[in-house]
Every structure is written in structure tokens, then in C-alpha cells.
Hints:
The protein is an all-alpha fold. It contains twelve helices and no strands. It has helices spanning 2-23, 29-51, 61-84, 87-94, 99-107, 114-130, 142-163, 169-196, 215-238, 241-248, 251-262, 269-287. Helix 2 crosses helix 9, helix 6 packs across helix 11 and helix 9 (215-238) packs antiparallel against helix 10 (241-248).
Amino acid sequence: MSVLLALATAVLWGFADFGGGLLTRRLPALTVVMASQVIAVVVLGTIVLATGGWREAGPQLWFAVGAGLVGPVAMFSFYKALALGPMGVVSPLGSLGVVVPVGVGLAIGERPGFGQVAGIAVALVGIVLAGGPELRGAPVQRQAIVLTLVAAFGFGAVMALIAEASSTLTGLFLALFVQRVTNVAAGGTALWLGTRRGTPALPEGTGLRDLWPLVPALAFVGLADVAANGTYSLAAQTGPVTVAAVLSSLYPVITALAAFALLKERLRTVQAAGAGLALAGTVLLAAG
């Protein structure tokens, strides 16, 4: 069950990133993040009220608050790094944050077997290669590398924190709600400060009315991201964190395959090889 939940996480995150990437071609990245998270807050708030999840409030929610504060920083750093480019370097490096939850798993005493260690190693190589790393002819600014590493370890920290934020299903709904409220508060502050400094929240000539046709896509991105956090938390609670973290981090492979299938983007040889290795690592992890 843990393996299936972790793979579901990878699929959800992969499609959420794919959808978010398409939306950022029409709207500023921060606006996409904020709009999708606001929708997620409304839906999660309704679920918490319907299930009585507020009764699960306790000290564990501070982990959710921490995830909510770290998440926007990681996301903004990642988008900024992508803007500096090249994406073929930034994207694979962004997946290195998996070392954080894996390290947590090892620190709490998990000791994966030989087959699982081999699967982790193969999957990690596949994840990096699936991003299509540019090894030659790609000038990389030091700032882009620093921002990417900040984003990567931020994403990894969110995975580790959200896994500790609840111990029941209703508690998980509450934890995800608190995380998203914190996201909106932190991201909204950043958006407000940006507009005060002259950075537009919407493209020139675009009004709030123009956002309505994009609401379904924004809702999909926000809710898929929330669902991925939820399935990852359950995967980490029902099985080894080391395995759950690595399998969940297969999302760059899903994003690349979605771009290939839906946008007809051609996979480079290194990306195809990475996808194959990632799947081989998944088989080893599942068998182990």
C-alpha cells in the first residue's frame, strides 16, 4: 500500500507541475501559485468542517505550519532559478531534495535491504537523468545553482514535515488545511509586496474577469498538489520513509512523459534513459 500511495504521489505532483507550467505561460508564476492555493484552502476548509477534522488540533500542527512557511520559499526559489536557467540543469537538481526525507528515515532507524538500496540508487539516477541535464554548452549562473539547491532542500523539508503533521486521516485533512492557509498567508504577503514594488500580479490588459476561464485548471493544480501531499504523508506513515520519498520523487518523470504525450515534446535520449532507469528502480523498490 505504501508503494502504491507513493507512486500516486509522483503521478499527482507530476501532473500538477505540468499544469502549473502551462499556466505560467499565461500568468505570473506567483499568481498561479496563489490562485491555486486559495482554491485548495476553500476545498480543504469544507472537508475539515464536514469531517470534524478541527477536533484533531494539537502540537503536531506546528509541523504543518513549518511546511506552509518553507513551501512558498522553495517554490519561489525554484521558479526564479528556472527563469535564470538553463532548465536542463535546474530541473534535475531540483529533485535532489529527496535526500532530506531519506536522511530522516535513516536517522530514525530505517535500514533498507540490499534490493531497496539498489532500487533507491537506480531511481535517483533515473530521476536526475529524466530532467534532461545539459552537461555541455550550458552556462549556469552561480545564483541559479544556489536558488535551485534552496528549492530542492525546501521541497524535501516539506515532505519530511508534512509526514509528521498528523497521525489520522481527519487529522491529515486539518494538517493540509493549516499548511495551505500558511502558504496563502506567506505567498499573499510576497505578492502584495511585489505589487507595491511595481511587479504586476496579472499581465498587462488582464483583469480578474479574465481569470474565470482558467479556474478549472488552477483548481486542478492546487488540488492535485494537496492530494499529493496527502498521499505522501500516508505513504510515509504506512511504510519506510526512504522508499516513500524516492518513489514520490519520480514526479519529474511523469512531467516529462506528460509533455511528450500531450504537447508532443520530443524526449532526448538522456531523458528516455532516465525514465527507464526510474521505472527499473521502482520495480526494485517494490520487490524489496
